């Protein structure tokens, strides 16, 4: 059986070391990252079986990471590590979609018990994260695992940002997104805040789809608001 991949997002070295040690003991393939922005990139770059996510992080906090992942349709299990009970209240109150919580200081035995329980639950769910990795809308296929996009038999070469943008739209056909929303959710922190950045990326994406032979526009302009994925072309078929 393939080893399960776990991402540990924790900026405190001692805690991270302890977690990494115990995860390795369980024969899990664990990766450590100490920064929120880097964590989000890692989470988007490949499939994970579980994330141990600290609440307070440099870059982007655990709540924001969770919110963005869920907004993009990711169902990766998240075990949130919080520093105090008041933070735990905040996490629970926001119901952002973390799967479980442990407050610091925690016993590593307790954390590992939660880890095992979450991984068991996921394998019983037939790995939903993997199952959702291909988005099919008619002849357009977006494969999140290989980051490949095809239109019929034509491969479309996209930049990382264009790919993220197309995936983001394709996950929610018909839903209208404002440019500022796209900047926050696709670009993330560190974007320049210019709405024309979105316009120019969408124009390039459209041109590439058209060059590949798209008969109709996949991404429609909603005047005065933003953009949406053409729901007339959408036939969601998650393979
Ligand atoms: Ca921290």
How are the elements arranged and paired?
Blueprint: E1 5-9, H1 13-25, E2 29-33, H2 36-45, E3 50-54, H3 62-71, E4 78-82, H4 85-94, E5 100-103, H5 108-124, H6 128-131, E6 134-137, E7 140-143, E8 148-151, E9 154-156, H7 160-171, E10 176-178, H8 179-187, H9 195-211, E11 219-222, E12 226-229
Parallel strand pairs: 1-2, 1-3, 3-4, 4-5
Antiparallel strand pairs: 6-7, 7-8, 8-9, 10-12, 11-12
Helix pairs in contact: 7-9, 8-9
Bound molecules: calcium ion.
Calcium ion is lined by residues 11-12, 54, 56-57.
Keyword list:
9 helices; 239 residues; Arc Repressor Mutant, subunit A; four-stranded antiparallel sheet; 43% helix; alpha/beta; Rossmann fold; 12 strands; single chain; binds calcium ion; five-stranded parallel sheet
Written overview of the protein:
With 239 residues, the protein is an alpha/beta fold. It has 2 domains: 5-126, Response regulator (Rossmann fold, 3-Layer(aba) Sandwich); 134-233, Winged helix-like DNA-binding domain superfamily/Winged helix DNA-binding domain (Arc Repressor Mutant, subunit A, Orthogonal Bundle), CATH 1.10.10.10. It contains 9 helices and 12 strands. The protein has helices at residues 13-25, 36-45, 62-71, 85-94, 108-124, 128-131, 160-171, 179-187, 195-211, and strands at residues 5-9, 29-33, 50-54, 78-82, 100-103, 134-137, 140-143, 148-151, 154-156, 176-178, 219-222, 226-229. Helix 8 (179-187) packs across helix 9. Residues 11-12, 54, 56-57 line the site of calcium ion.
